[in-house]
Amino acid sequence: MSISPLMPVYPRCGFRPVRGDHCHLIGEDGRRYLDFAAGIAVNILGHSHPGLIGAIQRQAETLMHVSNLYGSPQGEHLAQRLVDLTFADTVFFTNSGAEAVECAIKTARAYHQHVGNDHKFELITFNNAFHGRTLATISASSQEKMHKGFLPLLPGFKYAPFDDLEAARALIGPNTAGFLVEPVQGEGGIRPASDAFMQGLRALCDEHDLLLVLDEVQCGVCRTGSFYAYEQYGITPDVLATAKGIGGGFPLGACLATEKAARGMVAGTHGSTYGGNPLAMAAGEAVLDAAANPAFLEHVRTMGERLRARLEQFIGNYPELFELVRGRGLMLGVKMKGEPRPFVAHLRDNHQLLTVAAGDNTLRLVPPLVIDESHIDEFMDKLSAAAASYQVEQPA
Please, which residues bridge with residue 334 across strands? Predict the structure, then answer.
């Protein structure tokens, strides 16, 4: 028995995409698939956006990588745009969401320890969260399936039920540094937090001098209909981790922070060889050029409302399959009556429709944010046919 050249940590399916065309992927066999997975909420501009492709091509011809030993006009420009668009005063660029969350965790600890409060190192996180696959980010997640094989965990995390403000309040102690929370849980089942919960966490942070750290890796960059989801709650965080959509498919993440929150992140405390390289910055600029404007956000909200309305009307036809629809913008989940993975496979293999399973028996829909009515029509046609044929295939 020999191991595969690609380390076998993914249970890969039989679909092998080789080309992208706007909101579709084309497999090795030439078949065309409607992509409502978007690289797990990454390809927000689809697969062949001329602005993103052109920016990457032009920058690749000019300068790709130099290291952070030198000044970065490209990084400074993109960072300033993000500062202007958000609550933040400063930005650290990373290559991924997990790295962005790692930086956010370090920022929260450094905030307190910079002034000698070394005992303030614990972050309160929430059940069913997903923050990444590094040792720190799996430690920040309460899911035992992510911990198995990698013990001992990194100390410094306590877990509370999601959307339970009183449970979060009860965990505050002398070692608490802040809260780490997804405003809309992605892997956990497309579960938006309530306004009262998010506003309550902000109030607790203000009362106890704690940091509110948001993980918007999946729900950020226009996905929920605002540039970042926190805007919909009427609050501002102290630190925010972002990635996925911010590069449109190019590996890019960032940790955003206020000046106060970042006071411990001084020279020598953090770094990244590739983070903020000119090629990534060009991709980020192209994404902001296309997406960071009121018209694009209005499009996301409109398409999200139409898709949600049609889903809510549709699921009543199959009460034994589907339970409810939840989410915001074009980050939608259909809670199923059972495990969603067999249905995800059925959609993919029999109807050329790509979706993603999530926790809490959820069928996750995170299409490119550039979908139009024709894609929603195609999606509903495929979903309807799949639900009907799935019913036939299931044992009585």
Answer: 325, 363
Annotated binding-site members: 97-98, 130, 133, 215-218, 272-273
CATH architecture of 17-49+294-393: Alpha-Beta Complex (3.90)
Binding site per annotation, positions for pyridoxal 5'-phosphate: 97-98, 130, 215-218, 273
Let me know the angle formed at the C-alpha of 139 by 235 and 336, rounded to the nearest 5 degrees: 70
pLDDT level of residue 396 (50, 70, 90 thresholds): very low
The candidate with the shortest Cα–Cα distance to 357, out of 347, 371, 369, 370, is 347
3-class secondary structure, 51? helix
Residue 162 pairs in a beta bridge with none
Does residue 394 have a pLDDT over 60?
A: no
Q: Is the pLDDT of residue 241 over 80?
A: yes
pTM equals: 0.97
Residue 185 backbone dihedrals phi, psi, to 5 degrees: -70, 130
CATH of 63-291, picked from 3.40.640.10, 3.40.50.720, 3.40.50.2300, 3.30.70.20, is 3.40.640.10
Locus of tokens 């024709």: 374
In the DSSP assignment, the letter for residue 7 is -
**Helix (H/G/I), strand (E/B), else coil: 26:** strand
Q: List binding-site positions for N(2)-acetyl-L-ornithine.
A: 133, 272
